[in-house]
Amino acid sequence: MLLRRLLPLLALVACAAPPAEQSVDVSFVLKAGDKPAGCGLELPGLGTKGTAAHLSDARLYLGEVALIDAAGKRVPLSIPDGPWQSGGVALIDFENAAGACRGTQATNTRVVGTVPAGRYSGLSFTIGVPVPLNHTSHVTAPPPLDSVAMSWSWQAGRKFLKIELDPAGGVSRPKGARPSSSWYLHLGSTGCVGDPSHGEAVACSRPNRILVEFPAFDTRTQQVAVDLLPLFAATDITLDQGGAPGCMSGVDDADCPAVFRQLGLDLSSGRPADGGPKFLRVEARP
Ligand code: CA
Questions:
Q1: What is the pLDDT of residues 66-89, one digit of tens each?
Q2: Distance 247 CA to ligand 1 centre (A)
């Protein structure tokens, strides 16, 4: 008798129970200051000389995406596998083959996943591919780790961040070096030993992974802006001083220290530098 009276109440409680998981999408946008940046758009005033430039590539890998709860605890985002994310890694791809860009039309500007239902106040993630997934073959890896454009065979891994600019007037290079129309920023782990194609474990002395934390971030109303203006603020993008054209994470490349400071990385150790990255900010979603 008592059970019969309680059953409707139990059913009500069951209906009112909050969902165990909540959906989250973390949105990214490419900017040059307060202006939208992208393929086919002129980017005015970049670098120490305020040079106009066109974008020819802009992509980055993210991992270890987590929301921060009220107690300051990082709660990892559960990220379903799909064309743009697998194994907890996502590719943000601003490149759409327009203008000077030479990749594919498809783009992706968000990471989607779930977290246990609750209240969250912050966001953290890493720009980079975690070690176990980084040194795998792009031929056999699932998307988005199969991207040829983001593979970095000579460093046995992936480019974590790839920004390529075509400045007006091109890039002047040291005498004898091949001319370049682009200033390349390729970030990835360096100082790597071990050949994964022969089953060897790979170890890199300079990880070059960027740790990002926004203590106050609301995924529903805000997005992460990747801002080219501060990224190249201390760099003359019309000049290559040697090594790779631009900075391809070379520890001896004179073009790397300035841009690495803005990335929030210590070039010689490949570890996070004091002050963190200076090219990312939180802004309202449109
Ligand atoms: Ca260089």
A1: 999 999 999 999 999 999 999 999
A2: 5
